[in-house]
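pasting for the record
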Amino acid sequence: MNNKLQAGMAGKLREALDRVFDERSFVDFLSALAGDWTVEREIEAAMPSPPHSIGALGWENGTIGAFLGAAGAWAKASKNAL
């Protein structure tokens, strides 16, 4: 995928994250994340990335189930580091 597009989307997410200071701004950040994920799904539908690689915009989990599984695995692996 176009590295400029990926960098631009990452920059927008970083800006949204930097604006988080309360519940409303956190919800705005979540909306930005959801929008980014949706754009990646659209790109992937048109031009799929190779299997076992990150998506067009850098998402490593293609579904919420994959994300939750990865989060759980991380939590178990880093239990003593929390």
